Amino acid sequence: SGWPLDGAEGAGVAEAWLGCQVSAVSSSTAAARLAELGTALSRLSWTPDERVSCFQARVPGTVFSNLLRAGRFSELVPAGEDIFVDDNLAKVPDISVTGRDYYAMWYRTVLTLPGPRGQGSGGLNHLLRLRGTNYRVEVYIGGLRVRALEEDEGMGVPGMFHRWTFPIPQEVLGPDGRVAVAVHTSPPDFPGSANCTSVPGPCGQGGDHEIAKNAAVMQASAGWDWVQATPDRNTGIWDRVSVVTAGAALLTDPFLRTLALGKEQAVVLASGTAVNLQRHRTVAVVLRVVLRDARGRVVATAESSEPVVLEPGERREIEMELTVGGEGEEIHLWWPHTHGASYLYKASFDLLGGARDAPERWSSATMQHGFRKLSTWVDPTTQGRA
User: Most CB atoms within 10 A, among 36, 167, 182, 303?
Assistant: First the structure.
């Protein structure tokens, strides 16, 4: 009945998702209505009522795709016809006509998270990670509104290509590890129009270009060349949802960059961001990076020279250099398709904390890395650079 979430092994199981839209508008303000519904939907005790209309939803899945699957537009397109054939899509109400609220939606599910839980040594912190949402997102967990770790004060979480991480409050988890989650998604602030009624002359590359006023968002969702506009402008959860587990601190954004490359030796810059998940105490962390070749043999290791002290809630990037290879060694290169083998090394990142003589692994990540060198040359015949 449930399905495992992406992320750390055994990180959690989610029940089926519901999609819910407001069906009864109250006299309260939009912000108050949002908070009221978010608080209610994210409680385990919630049951459907007259305020919302709910249906089975698919995640990842945009609002439009879920409404389509729920039969919202079945009367607009003849039975048996594909809505994506000919001009059938144009029969669906466009956001420029309906307004933004028509394509706003709540996604709701119930998670079951493993233990032990807590913010001390040996306990797990759980975090909900949304890898792709559009456009504005509000997240409620266990009746509480939760801010993303990456959220700037007062800015919210707008955009289409951000990855957001939301701490799951320890106090809302029941003894069985179950907690309800409600994610509200709303369309771009400036959805634009594909009909170009506001600009003179023909258009089609992003409609009337109003959609370009938003933060990073897919311009083609308002139409491009022969591509018809997407009625909801791709609003919703369009990429993976996962639960991440960590100790007292979390490692995010691991990265490797080649600084120098020779036939027998390479120098790599490794970096990662450490986030203190504790609310009331500082923590000291060490970042350890191990690089292995395709056979699993360790070819380079590095560790931050001194523990990095993080204040409660603080984020800090940690950098270090790794030297790969040496005399008699060979650096295997990554070649593009048809040019040679695409050799990849594997890097493991471990964020360590706790006692210096017996550190605990609080957070970890892995990634692949290929070595390549790009250069240009002047063709002697054409005298052109290639």
Answer: 182
